[in-house]
Amino acid sequence: MITVETQGRVRVVTLSRPEARNAVNPALARALYGAMLAFDIDADVDVAVLTGAEGTFCAGFDLKSASQGDGIEWIKGLTIPETWTDPITDPRQGPMGPSRLMLSKPVIAAIEGSAVAGGMELALWSDIRIMAEDAQFGVFCRRWGVPLIDGGTVRLPQVVGQGRANDLILTGRAVNAVEAAAIGLADRVTPKGGALTAALQMAEGLTRFPQGCMRADFLSARGDPAALAAALRREWASAGMALAEGVQGATRFAEGHGRGGRFDDL
After folding, report:
1. 107, 48 Cβ separation under 8 angstroms
2. Which residues of the chain are under the pLDDT cut of 50?
3. Looking at the domain assignment, is residue 237 inside a domain?
4. What pTM, to 2 d.p., does this model score?
5. CA-to-CA distance for 216 and 3, rounded, in angstroms?
6. CATH number of the domain where residue 148 is located
7. Which of 85, 106, 113, 260 has the lowest CB atom count within 10 Å?
8. Is residue 266 part of a domain?
9. Tally of domains within the chain
10. Angle between the 225-236 and 152-160 helix axes, to the nearest 10 degrees?
11. Alpha-carbon radius of gyration of the chain
12. Cβ contact 111:48 at 8 Å
C-alpha cells in the first residue's frame, strides 16, 4: 500500500497502489496516517517527501471501494467531535489518512501525473508542492457528488485565494502545471519525471538548517491550530453528502463512467 524509505534525514513515503492510480482505500489511509505520525516523532528525520508510484501522485479516494460499502463505513467512522480543537496534540484520522494532522516538520509533495479529488487534498495538506510539467490538479470528485472532506475547502482558498478556489471547487476542471504555478498551487515545476528528484534536493537542503528555529517559524506561519480544527469540523458537515449523492456517483464510476477526467458521459 505504501513504501517508506529513509535517505539521510529525509523520509520518503510513496503511495503504492498503481493498479488504482494510487487511489486511497481505508487500508492505505490508515497506513499513510501511521507513517506520517511516525515521521513526526522520529528524531532521526527532519523532512518528509510524499509521492506516488509509477508516475501518478493520487487519484483521490477509491470510488470502487466507496461503491462497495467498505469505503463509506470507513468514512462514517471518522466523525469529528465538537470538542476537538487541536490537530497537533490530539491527532485525528481523515478519510484520506493524515489530512487532519498539523505536523511539526515539513512535508513536500512530489507530484507526477494526477493529483485529483482527495489526491489534490493530500497535496494541499503537504506544505510545499513540486509538480511535473505534465501533471494536473482538479476537484474531479465534483462530477460524482463526492464532497471535499479532507481539508480541500479549508486549504485551497488559503493557497490560491477565495475567487480562484471558488472556480476550481465549483467547476471541478483540470489545472495544468502552468496555471498551477501561476496561481500558487504549485510552488515549483519540473520536467516530466523530475518532481521526486527536485523534492529530495529541497528536502536535503532543509535538513542543513538549525531545526528548532526552522520548526518554530514553520509553526507560527501556519496560524492557529484551533482555527484549523474549527474549519475542518465545519467542512466535515458535508460528509453526509457522501452517503447520498456520493454513493450513487461512486457506483457509476465503478461501472466505467467518467474515466480519464471526462464529463461527457455523466
Report:
1. yes
2. none
3. yes
4. 0.92
5. 29
6. 3.90.226.10
7. 260
8. no
9. 1
10. 120
11. 17
12. no
User: What cell numbers appear for 18 in the block?
Assistant: 498503481
Q: How far apart are alpha carbons 262 and 240 in whole angstroms?
A: 25
For β-strands 128-132 and 107-111, DSSP reports them as parallel
- Residues contacting 262, CB < 8 A, separation 6+: none
Distance CA 131, CA 27 (A): 26
pLDDT tens digit string along 32-59?
Answer: 999 999 999 999 999 999 999 999 999 9
Kindly state the DSSP code that residue 84 receives in the 8-state scheme.
-
- The whole domain housing 211 covers 2-196+204-261
DSSP letter at 148 equals -
pLDDT, one tens digit per residue, over 149-194 is 999 999 999 999 999 999 999 999 999 999 999 999 999 999 999 9
Residue 182 lies in a domain: yes
DSSP code of residue 238: G
Determine, yes or no, domain membership for 108. yes
Q: How many whole angstroms separate alpha carbon 168 and alpha carbon 175?
A: 8
The answer to whether residues 117 and 146 touch, using CB atoms and an 8 Å cutoff, is yes
